[in-house]
Structures are given as C-alpha cells and as structure tokens.
Design a protein that fits this description.
- Residues 1-18 form the signal peptide.
- By secondary structure, the protein is mainly beta.
- Helices cover 3% and strands 42% of the residues.
- The strands form 9 sheets. Strands 26, 28, 29, 31, 36, 37, 38, 40 and 41 form a 9-stranded antiparallel sheet that branches. Strands 30-39-32-33-34-35 form a 6-stranded antiparallel sheet, with no helix packed on it. Strands 7, 8, 9, 10 and 11 form a 5-stranded antiparallel sheet that branches.
- The chain binds 2-acetamido-2-deoxy-beta-D-glucopyranose (9 copies).
Length: 581
C-alpha cells in the first residue's frame, strides 16, 4: 500500500498552493458515490470560465434521454443539467438497437475553443454509431448538436486537443471476440468534418485484458495515457503510462495499477474507468465507476456509480490516487448549490403530482425512444395524473421486437441503497392481456413487476419477475371497485439484499406479494430504475390507458461500508450536504 506516501506528498502540494478566494485549502469529509445510481464511466472536467463549475458525463446504454450531464460547484451536490442525446433526430440509429445490452457506452466529455464535446460509441447500433456531439450551452438540451460521425468503430473513444491543433482520438478496438481481447488504437479527427486518419496501435497498457476507457492529458511536458483494464467487474483497475509524444512510446508507471479495489474487502468494488481533472485551487481529483457490492459481488442492483477521490500529482511525477471508500476526506470547494438549470440534484427525493402544464422531470427516463403520445400529464378529466397508454410490447418484449415500436415505461434511477417508491393508479382493463403497474427494471431480461392484469375474465393483481432465479409469479383476484377507486403500489428496498413489492387499495393497507433478492438485478452493465408501465402484452398498440398519481421516491439510507449507512438526502436526520440541512 502506498497510502503513507500519498499523505505526505499531497500534504506538501496542498501547502504550496494558494487557494483563490472562496476555495478551501483544508479538508472536509464527503461520501461516495458522489453521483449515486446507474452512472457508470464518468468523464469530468472543471471550467473556471463557466463560473468555476465541474461537469460530468456518464453512460446510459438504452435509457433515453441518453448520456446525462451533471454539474456541480462543490463536487458533492450534482445537478442533472442536460442529456447529450435528448432528441431521436440527433442519431436515429440509437432507437433501433435490438440487443438489450447495447446503446451509449462510455462517453468522453471535453471542452475546447468555447465548445463542449462528447465523443462516444453507440454499441450495437445497426448503422455506425461512433462520433461526437457539441454544445455551447450544457444547460440546454436543445443546444446539443446532431451526431457527427467518426468512422472508426470500437468503443470508449477519447478526444484530446493537442496544443499544435491536432485532435487525437484513442479507442478500445476489439481484436478477438473469444476470449474478449482489445487494444487501444489511435487516429486523428478533422474538425468539424469528423474525417479521420487510419487507426494504428497505441497501447495495451500493462497487458491486462481488456484495455479500455483511454484518456490522454498533457502536463509537465509529458503526455499521460490513463486506461481502464481488467474488465468492468472485480478485476477492474486504472493504469497510467507517459510519453514525450501523444503517439507514444509509453513508459508504464511502476506502481500500476494506480487505483483498484482488487484484493480489498471494501464495499466499493470494481473501481476503474477513471478520469482526472483539476479544481480552481489546483487540487487534482479523479472520478471512476464503482459497484457497492463488497467482494462477495452478489447484491449490487444500482450497478456502477460515480465515485470521487483526491489525487496527488506533483510536477513531473506519477499521480497517486487515494483509494475509494464510502467515507472520504479531501480539499473540497465549499458547499454551493447555486448551479443553473432546471434539473434536480441527483440525491433529491421525488414528490410529483403531475399538475396541468407541468412536464416530466428531467431525471425521468424511457427505455429507447419513447412514443411521446403514450404519455400525457393531466389529460382531460384526469387532473394531476400521468396517463400511460399501453404499448404492444411488455417490459420483456420478445425476440422479433421492433425496438422503434417502443415500450410504455418511464422510470427514475434507484439512487439509494434503501428507498421506498410509491404511486397510485386508476386502471379499468377490459381485454385479456391488458396490464399496468410498477416495475424495478434493470433491462428487458431483468425486472420485477407488480401490476393489475386482465386475465380469466377479470382484473387481477399480479407479481411477476423476469430473469434467471426469479421468484414465481403470484396472481390474486382483485375487487373490481379498486379499478376506479385506485390501487396503491409500493416498491421498497428494505435492506441491502431485498426489495418488497406490495399492492392494495388506494389509501388502504398494502399486501406484500413478494420479497425479491436483488441479486436477480445484479448483472450486466445497467442499474435499476423504478417506475410505471402499461402494455397489452402483444395484443396491439391500442388499449385501456392507466392513470398514475402521487409519485413518491424517498431514499432511506446509503450504504458506505459493510452494514454502515449515512442518511439519504431529504431523510429525517438529514444527509451531509443535504439540501434540506
Ligand atoms: C439534425 O438532424 C435532423 C434529421 O436528420 C435534421 O432535420 C436537422 O436539420 C439536423 N440539425 C442540424 C442542426 O443539423
Ligand atoms: C433500423 O434498423 C433496420 C434494420 O437494420 C433498418 O432497416 C432501419 O433503417 C433502421 N432505422 C433507423 C431509424 O435507423
Ligand atoms: C474556434 O471556433 C470558431 C467558431 O466557433 C472557429 O471559427 C475557429 O476556427 C475555432 N478555432 C479553433 C482553433 O478550433
Ligand atoms: C496488444 O494485445 C493484443 C491482444 O493480446 C495483441 O494481439 C497485440 O499483439 C498486442 N500488441 C502489442 C504491440 O503488444
Ligand atoms: C491481489 O492478490 C494476489 C494474491 O496475493 C496478487 O497476486 C495480486 O498481485 C494482487 N493484485 C493487486 C492488484 O494487488
Ligand atoms: C487532505 O486530503 C488529502 C487527500 O486525501 C491528503 O493527501 C492531505 O494530506 C490532507 N491534508 C490534510 C491537512 O490533512
Ligand atoms: C433482508 O431481508 C430478507 C428477508 O427477511 C433476509 O432474508 C435477508 O437476509 C436480509 N438481508 C440482510 C442483508 O439483512
Ligand atoms: C440472494 O441470492 C443469491 C444468489 O442466488 C444468494 O447467493 C444469496 O444468498 C441470496 N441472499 C439472501 C440474503 O438470501
Ligand atoms: C410479454 O409479451 C410477449 C410477446 O407478446 C408474450 O409472449 C409474453 O407472454 C408476455 N408476457 C406476459 C407476462 O404476458
């Protein structure tokens, strides 16, 4: 371990820096993850010229709008300020992916010549989906450009603006599918055309497969190549090498991997896919993804979240990162919630009643492109309701599913280890197969639902889960009066390993149908969402709509170590840096 050296070196560096007015030079405590819930592959920058603001992009796979941009003034409170792809026209192929594990993988966010760039690959898009988006206003969805294609393939592309005007990109290129093997290749990009030079081998990092997630930095006369290696599970690690030229050859840091959770008992595992940036006071910071699974790696439904760690990077020397834990200390800027834009802070609870004239909050997501006519707020005769009109496809869909046909579902990320989600529904189905309810949803292959379904000539309450090891379906008759009077649903993560799914008459006692081990949702690349859905289960695109009211999501605790929690924002007792504090 190199913890002691870290302390000394960073301590000295801290002393030698004159913090600008309003910036801390003393340490304070903060908690990981800084952007909780499904927010993997973070790429972050700090911009003095944007009022001393930090911006981060993360992966979204098939969730839409895609590639959230969060902004913060204090590194702890992060507001959702836009999504890079928020209109199908920016890249129509993103709506057209059949593989439920495809979509927008790791983006790189950079700023050059007063323009924000996000370069990314839309994996499994039926047409080539690598390229970049630009904006001059990260607070406005509409300001994000269409995709400019960069015809190179691969995934995890980086963009690096060299001082001589050359724009380099490096990406993970698959050289063998089985066993999965990649190498980092490099090319240059002409702006604004997106034309490229031929790719060539750049690095294999330390050789641990697969090298991915490259980022290049220029500092102290060296080019530094940061990589993710070992794959995104328990062997994930961050390595660095340096060169006098952006094209190599690369000298490896003898201390590699510079950051990993391998061989630790920390709750925070799979640490990797990092990015580095400097704050206004000159302190270096890193972000990475991490899974709150502990080494057992069984229960991790939120999957890969964004974590923050201080970095000591003295002139001309290798950077040294503090290991990622739940409770951290570092020279944070002072608390500042004054972030522009209309989005919510990622740790905020939800209390939504869908009044007329309101719009769905920015952090609500669909799965692939939505058919917006299926979602209506306070439609005539149904004030303060969100109306969902059913899709032909249910949440699982089927092999011949046309992804552009859409699935009626809208959800928000699970952002707390413990939470309660409740919603009311009025729904009077009259045809076999008509169904509406709520789900905790990881992907089409993995979800647990509780809803009302018309079957055997009457509406029934049904619990159903999809995925290997899913508990058995439970169907119970339901009094017909509940259709119009309303049903209440609750999905609760009541401990580290289990959800309960409950239903009952609106305003009455709820009956718990099932306890679901969240291990059935702990897989692949995405993390859990909760929200309502409506479907005809394959009986066509038209059917009885469902009306939802009183959407409440409240966090009830964030795990920071084995059995240790700190309060969620808005929770009685307050979280640190809570907005309600
Ligand atoms: C974006 O793409 C759409 C559809 O391809 C096109 O109609 C629109 O003009 C494009 N926008 C810009 C700014 O190029
Ligand atoms: C969707 O994919 C199909 C099959 O590859 C293709 O024919 C169609 O043009 C695609 N549509 C869009 C909008 O990309
Ligand atoms: C900077 O952007 C402006 C237009 O936004 C463009 O005219 C100029 O060429 C760009 N400069 C560089 C160095 O990219
Ligand atoms: C990089 O790794 C790949 C996959 O193992 C291998 O095919 C390639 O030869 C390596 N390249 C170099 C220069 O070592
Ligand atoms: C993890 O432990 C094993 C066994 O002691 C060791 O071989 C390996 O190098 C360690 N890995 C790291 C990254 O420390
Ligand atoms: C502040 O935190 C950094 C990062 O952990 C550490 O390197 C430094 O020694 C700490 N400074 C003090 C004064 O404790
Ligand atoms: C959560 O509750 C379930 C059901 O009571 C129980 O089986 C499980 O052991 C609990 N998990 C933890 C971490 O306490
Ligand atoms: C959850 O399921 C996993 C996988 O089947 C199992 O290993 C684990 O013991 C279960 N946890 C509990 C608390 O039942
Ligand atoms: C989901 O839809 C598919 C395709 O229409 C159908 O085969 C399947 O039975 C449906 N699932 C349920 C639970 O109805």
């Amino acid at each position: 371990m190199r913890v002691n050296t870290t302390l000394t070196v960073a301590g000295l560096a801290g002393l030698s820096l004159a913090a600008p007015p309003g910036y801390q030079s003393k340490n304070s405590t903060y908690y990981n993850p800084i952007i909780p819930g499904f927010h993997p592959d973070p790429s972050c920058i700090f911009l003095k010229e944007w009022d001393n603001t930090f911006f981060c992009a993360s992966s979204s796979f098939l969730a839409f709008p895609a590639m959230p941009i969060h902004a913060s003034k204090d590194l702890v409170n992060w507001k959702l300020v836009s999504h890079v792809q928020n209109r199908p026209e920016q890249f129509p192929g993103a709506g057209n992916i059949t593989n439920s594990g495809g979509g927008w993988y790791a983006p790189t966010l950079r700023y050059h010549n007063s323009t924000f760039y996000v370069i990314n690959a839309d994996v499994d898009a039926p047409t080539e989906g690598t390229g970049f988006f630009t904006t001059k206003n990260p607070y406005d969805d509409n300001a994000w450009s269409n995709l400019t294609l960069v015809d190179v393939g691969g995934y995890d592309p980086d963009i690096f603006f060299d001082s001589d005007g050359t724009v380099y990109s490096q990406a993970a290129i698959t050289v063998l599918s089985n066993p999965f093997t990649t190498e980092i290749q490099q090319f240059t990009i002409d702006l604004p055309s997106g034309n490229t030079t031929p790719r060539h081998f750049l690095s294999n990092g330390t050789g641990v497969q697969p090298p991915e997630g490259p980022h290049i930095y220029h500092k102290d006369g060296y080019y530094w190549l940061l990589l993710a290696q070992g794959g995104t599970a328990l062997d994930h690690q961050v390595t660095i090498s340096r060169s006098l030229h952006p094209t190599g050859p690369w000298e490896l840091d003898p201390a590699n991997p510079i950051l990993t959770a391998i061989n630790t008992t920390s709750l925070f595992q799979t640490v990797g896919h990092a990015d580095l940036f400097q704050d206004a006071a000159g302190n270096w910071w890193g972000v990475a993804l991490s899974t709150r699974s502990g080494p057992a790696y069984i229960n991790w439904p939120m999957n890969r979240e964004t974590v923050l760690y201080p970095v000591s990077w003295p002139k001309g020397q290798w950077p040294v990162a503090d290991p990622v834990r739940g409770k951290m200390s570092g020279p944070l800027p002072p608390k500042n919630l004054n972030v522009p834009g209309v989005g919510t802070f990622v740790k905020d609870p939800d209390y939504y009643t869908f009044p007329a004239g309101s719009t769905l909050p920015r952090h609500f997501n669909y799965w692939r492109f939505p058919h917006l006519e299926k979602y209506a707020i306070s439609p005539p005769g149904h004030a303060n309701r969100l109306r969902l009109s059913p899709s032909n496809a249910n949440l699982t869909a089927f092999a011949s599913f046309d992804p552009l046909a859409g699935q009626t579902f809208v959800g928000r990320r699970q952002t707390d280890t413990l939470f309660t989600y409740t919603i009311n529904m009025e729904f009077s189905p009259s045809r076999a197969g008509e169904e509406a309810g709520v789900t905790v949803f990881l992907s089409q292959d993995r979800h647990a639902d509780i809803g009302v379904v018309y079957t055997d000539g009457a509406p029934h309450l049904r619990f159903r889960a999809e995925g290997p090891d899913a508990p058995a379906t439970i169907v119970k008759p339901m009094p017909a009066a509940w259709c119009e009077k309303g049903v209440s649903f609750e999905i609760k993560a009541f401990n580290f390993t289990h959800y309960s799914l409950s239903a009952g008459p609106k305003g009455g006692a709820l009956d718990t149908f099932a306890l679901v081990n969240n291990s059935i949702l702990s897989t692949s690349f995405t993390g859990a969402f909760v929200g309502p859905y409506a479907t005809t289960n394959g009986r066509g695109e038209s059917g009885t709509p469902a009306y939802f009211g009183n959407w409440v999501y409240q966090g009830q605790g964030q795990a920071i170590d084995d059995g240790q929690y700190y309060p969620s924002n808005g929770q009685k007792g307050g979280g640190l840096y809570s907005r309600d504090a």
